[in-house]
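Dissemination and training. As part of the outreach component of the grant, students in the summer workshop were shown how a complex can be specified as a set of sequence lines and then modelled as a single object. The example used during the hands-on session is reproduced here so that future cohorts can follow it. Participants entered these lines:
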Amino acid sequence: MKAMTDFMQSQTIRNKVLVFGVAMSTIPLLLISLFYYSFVKADLETRIIEKQHLVLENLSREIEFEFSQTFQRIQVLASLNLLDKKQSALYELLQQSESVEEVVIADDKGFVEQRVSRYDLNIAGSMERWFTDDMWFQLQTRDKVYGQVDFNQYGQPVMKLAIPFYGNGTKKAIGVVVQLQKIIGKISSMRQDHSSYIYLVDDNDRVIAHQDYSKIWHKQPSGGHDEIGVTAKIEDLNWILVMEQPKTTAFAPINRILQSGIGAVALLILTVSLISVWAGLYFTRPIVSIDREMNNLKQGRKISPVKMRRTDELGKLADSFNDMSKELLEKSRLLEQEKERLNVVVNGIGAGLALVTKEYRITWMNPILKGWLKEDRLTLPCYTLIGGENTPCLNCPITCPDLDKIADEVMKFKDGPNGERIFRHRVFPLNHAIEEEGEFLVVLEDITEQKQMEETMIQTDKLSALGIMASSFAHEVNNPLATINVYAEDLIDRIQAGDEDLDEDEMEHYLRKIKENTERCKKITGNLLNFSRKNDWTQEHIHIREIIESSISLVEHQLKKQRIQLELQVPDSLPMVTGDGLKLMQVIVNLINNAVDAMESEGRLLVSASADDEGQVSIKVTDSGHGIPAEAMDKLFDPFFTTKPIGKGTGLGLSVCYGIIQQFGGTITIDSKPEEGTTVEIQLPAELQAGIEGEDQ
Amino acid sequence: MKTKWYFFFLTTVAVSAIIYAFLGFKGDGPAEIGVLMIGENRHEKFTGLEKGLKDLGYSGKEIHFTVKNADDDEKLLDKQIDDLLKSEPDLIVTLGGIESLRLKEKLDKEKIKIPVVFAGIAAPKELGLIKDYKSPGGIFTGINNYHASISGKRLEMLTSLVPKIEKVHVIYDSKIDVSNLSLKETRIAAQALGVEISPCDASSKECLETLWKTVKDEEAILILPSFRIESLTDDIVRLTEEKKIPAMGLYDFEAEKGLLASYGSSFHSQGYQAARFVSLILQGNKPGELPVELPDGIRFVINQQTKDALGVKYNDDLLKLAELIHPEVQGGRSQ
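and obtained this result:
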């Protein structure tokens, strides 16, 4: 059944329409024909049986009448006591009964006394016994006796009938020979329709009359199931009349109708098939065309529009298909373009890309990443393959789905073939990812050169600042050195002069002064060395105040030189900040240098720091300089942009500051009004600690 | 491609079914039955045959007769037999002995097997048409009209009817086998009955002339079967009327013409009875399996006028059996 259903499902619509048409036209016709065939067949059988009953009834009555009439006539003769007197009564009997061939009268011994014959001489033989022993025996007890069906000398079927009677006081018998050929002949030769036949069976089950003479005198055939037949019994004689008709001929009329019906059905099927195929083609041609073009479309072959001169649903479907395929082709073309662009981007972006599943399995990577990794072990987890770790990264969005913000902030380091290289590792969750094909996009950027550039920029900026501050440093160091020199010369002079007043306490005083000024020089040079040192980013806890103070100490001489009044508003209890203190100091020095440059001489510089409730530490550097022109505001953080005169600025200061504050995770903003001054504010994320205490001027 | 094969197959089936359906309507044509008669006087048998078939349920649509009447000309009969055989009928009905014998000769000679029904001939077994009455074998069957075997009985009937008869002239035809057989039967009966008989060969012209000269009172004439004698009926009637001689014929038409009596099966009833054989053979029986039948009935006919005209004493007992006819009153048979 399933195979049948599958077969039907796999057929084309045209075939289905054909089968449907043929089935719908023939099945009802066949069912109706079958119904009427069954009905008419049953009706015909009933009618045949009724007719057979009628025929047999008439025939059996005729036979019964023939015999009973003969008996009656004999009995009349016997009862009227006419038999002993003359032969006239016997002749009369012959005249009355055409089937009676001979009449005899036998005495009480059974010997023939008189004979009147229709064919033979009326001479009775001497001591001639006419009755069979059986008949004579029956005559003693019965009032009428039937003999057996027998044959005369001419082969004619005959039968003897007899009755006893009393004549002259003795019991005699009268017998007649009855010719059966007329009855038998009539039964046998009676024309019957449709191969019907009648046969007569005697009391010995012998067929004594049959249309087919080859069956006569044989035992009665056993009734088969292939005939329709009825029987009628002839009383007294115990004969049975049978009328039968083979079913093949009985049902011949309806079989002929069926035969012609088959022809009609075949013709109908042919006609309906033609119509069904036409209908199938008419209805399915658009669908087949659309299907063919869809296959072409699917396989990327050239398609042509489905043309149809119809406006029905199929016509509209074809139009829709044409529009849709056109649009699809256009979108495919755009998609190809997009894909090409994407390929160019993916391969030319300079970044490594990879798709990673939730199980950290890399399913795809671009050639750049493959080139970096120098190995194609896609089966390894991403943290092993990319990061060289044995466990997933702590702040990876795959591990922690809630850490979306950190997804593009994660930095990873990997040992490259050319030494240590720095990569930026960002992970983006994909909202429309195909399952098992990577739900996350990992972007790896080689930022080694960028980092080196940044370092170079910072160092250059630092050296520039040092250059600017060089004369200040010289003055700062010269002053204590001059003091040391004065104290040292004075001490030498007094020792050479042998000053008696120069005691140990006074000498100690001189040496202490020398030591103090030496310490001061050491501190100045130490700050300078510290500032100028090239170092990598170090993560440490920073006291903002210390950093501000160290920064101011570097530019203190310059401020004094240019008679700039410094105001410092930094509370002691500021929360600490995490990051690189030197880098923050470089930022503050840069900002103060910019302020000094802006004020040139006699100005006011305010350096303040504060913390707010949102965990941010704010550092402000405000000057009373000439301000920044509005048109330069947008370019302030661009590298190599400067508003200072040539030779005075490198244009890297604010750019470096921006990069360093970015690394702190903070922000830097500049507010400037021409001729009024500029305020630069840095906001840094603070470490969690105790609240702010009172401010210190 | 599949659709084309489907239509090829379907068209073949449809055309076959339509042809099959048309074949179903093809009906059988009527059965061709040839009828052979030596002369017009046996036409009554043909009438009986037609009536018999009609009573058995056959209509003109089912049976077509080709009747060949030889007008008592034996040569013409042979030619007509040839013509009939050329038309290849389904069955041939012969209306007498001469027709049957000539047809048998022709069939044996040309080895043709067409069923033949003889509608009443005397002694078919003795004539070699059949092997046995019960199982005839061969292609012949039909009705033994008993006219040979019944000859003795007819002599008894004649002498019993007119008890004063002392001598009976027996007219026979020495050229006809049946007639010779009948004479033989008559001789045996005459011996048994103690009646003197005098055979008279009708094939010679002297027979009737002699009878005209020699026949006397208390003598009678018995006619034996022969188509030649049948054609002499009128002459014999004139003889018996003139000489007032009782005469016993075979057929009712002989009594109607003026003989005292006739005892035998009528032409009509023989033809009527033969219809049964025709029906049985058309229904598929082989003629060799159909037993030859005796006549269904024997008519004992007495011409009332002749009886009265003869003025002799009759056996009243036997008159009970007789069927008295009044030809003049009834219109009679045309001469």
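The first strand of chain B starts at residue 31 and ends at 37. Students were then asked to discuss how this feature might be tested experimentally.
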